Amino acid sequence: MTRTVLVTGGTSGIGRAVAARFAADRAEVYITGRHADTVERAAKELGVHGVTCDATDPGQVAALAARFDALDVLVNAAGGLPGPAPGDVPPLEGVLAQWRANLAQNLLGAVLTTASVQDKLGPGGTVLSIGSIGAERRGGSYGAAKAALAAWSASLSSELGPRGVTVNVISAGYIAGTNFFQGQMTDERHASLVGETHDKRAGTVDDIAETAHFLASPGARHITGQTIHVNGGAFTTR
Ligand SMILES: NC(=O)c1ccc[n+]([C@@H]2O[C@H](COP(=O)([O-])OP(=O)(O)OC[C@H]3O[C@@H](n4cnc5c(N)ncnc54)[C@H](OP(=O)(O)O)[C@@H]3O)[C@@H](O)[C@H]2O)c1
């Protein structure tokens, strides 16, 4: 049976690799991003459907959801580090703007998208959201948003579980080959992040894509309400 898969933030990095992994299975894959040109280009390269949609905009998300009668897999990969508030903003307003932007980008986009399609997921359905090691340490407003993402996801699991839908977070460590660091990654920081891992390497987008593919497979139906850490041991749960 052909599965229908929606990947938000599928134009680059992790979301793009996840989309490619499901497309390789001949799933009917839809990707989103906020910019029409990159959405169109990535969709063409991957051979999937592209929809321009800002996950934090309720009207755009509703229009996206209206395209689906039924959905098998939702992967909330959209997220990232919003820039700082402009310099002329008074300090507290700047703090508020940064927190609001991070919560919108890394929590509310996933909440809105999921709310818009959750009734279209049937038995065997899967909701995945990409969290971060930043939820465990040194994350600031970004980490707080990702920690809330995991808390929300666990509670959604109890809501959708009785319908046979699993809900999990894949918490990524440092993943190279994405636009996440917006060109700011230095050799020193890269070496330091790799040094924190047990396997002494950066994560790859395929590490996350393969985990997502497994969590949406028949072998993973009893895994729900969890945060699955994919970080080479940089953070351990014991
Ligand atoms: N790379 C890492 O080391 C790392 C580590 C832990 C967690 N993560 C998480 O992994 C996820 C994917 O990030 P990435 O590393 O793959 O970075 P990326 O290469 O920058 O990809 C982010 C994707 O999300 C899209 N996007 C951002 N905001 C969006 C919005 N509001 N609505 C729709 N699409 C949006 C981007 O496209 P547009 O900008 O064109 O909209 C792009 O397609 C994020 O949630 C990030 O927090 C990354």
Automatic annotation (TrEMBL):
> Is Electron transport tagged as a keyword?
no
* CDD domains linked to this entry: SDR_c (cd05233)
**What keywords are assigned to this protein?**
Oxidoreductase
Q: Where is the Ketoreductase domain?
A: 3-178
Keyword Aminoacyl-tRNA synthetase (UniProt)? no
SMART domains membership? PKS_KR
What superkingdom heads the lineage?
Bacteria
| GO molecular function per UniProt | oxidoreductase activity
Q: Which Pfam families match?
A: adh_short_C2
Family from the record: Belongs to the short-chain dehydrogenases/reductases (SDR) family.
Question: What name goes with this protein?
Answer: 3-oxoacyl-ACP reductase
In its UniProt entry, the species of origin is given as Streptomyces antibioticus
Mind giving the lineage of the organism this protein is from? Bacteria, Bacillati, Actinomycetota, Actinomycetes, Kitasatosporales
